[in-house]
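note to self: the first set is below, dont mix up w the second
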Amino acid sequence: MAASQSQGAAALAWYVYMKKNDQKKPKPGDLIEIERDGFSEWAVYVGGGKAVHCTKGIVEEEDLDTLVGRDQWRVNNSLDKDHPPKGKEDIVASAKEQVGKKMASNLQLSHCERFATRVRYGRDLASQVQGSVSLSQKWKKFLQYITQHFIRNQGSYSCA
């Protein structure tokens, strides 16, 4: 299979995976997890197509489409079951009042997740630093899903 066909198949497979896993549109106050090369970047959706995130230690507001680029993303409020979030108005206001500020942290990679969880839950719940979520586990689950789906459909992908 040619490289472009392989990339197209992978993109279609990711789309099918996200559809099957009920990817939803973000609502103000939702946490957005963006899959980057080797790590996840986090942002807080503030409405109007905008998200607030921390990059290189500085909090910025940006169009979600620009922030995400070509990377995969999802709404990830998975910590809600164990940690009640603040109200959506409080989350959005807290995120927006941080724009332009510098974040202090020992781990550059964790800036964005620490920022996002502090804004949503009022405290630092960064799973990348604590080790409760790993990209390799997500990819393993995704590849298992694709393998099963591919075999079940005799080598063809369907969005149905």
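second set (the one i keep forgetting abt)
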Amino acid sequence: MQTPCSGPRCGPLTGSDRGGASWTCDTTPVSTRPPLVPHWGLATVTGDSMRPALRPGDRLLVRYDRRPREGDVVVATLADGTLVTKRAVERRTTRTGEPAWWLLSDDPRRGVDSRHRGPVRDADVHGVVVMRIWPPGRRRAVPDSCGA
């Protein structure tokens, strides 16, 4: 059973950066849930911080059940509640010792990232961007930090 909720840890994220996001909670008891299946969703880029890899208006296919690796572009929530698309650069820990990711913008002159808000807890990294699906002329896998 799916019910709406407002918390960032409630379930798979669907929608876009800033304002267009919605969350769902799976209230089915863990013991009766079917085996996990991939969770997919879409995100829309709204700022310039991920240029040149991503541009405003790009639509992204996001996989919510995949663990990030260094170099992946991810959808995450920063400590101040801002929903962002950033690059997972390296593993870190929070001040409380929780496992976390250091997330950076591709363009260091733009946007807010871990340099401003600190490491992002694993629980706040919602999914990994698999590919850009819009606009059609730019449809392809999102390049990693090395441009591959």
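remember for set 2: The first helix runs from residue 114 to 117.
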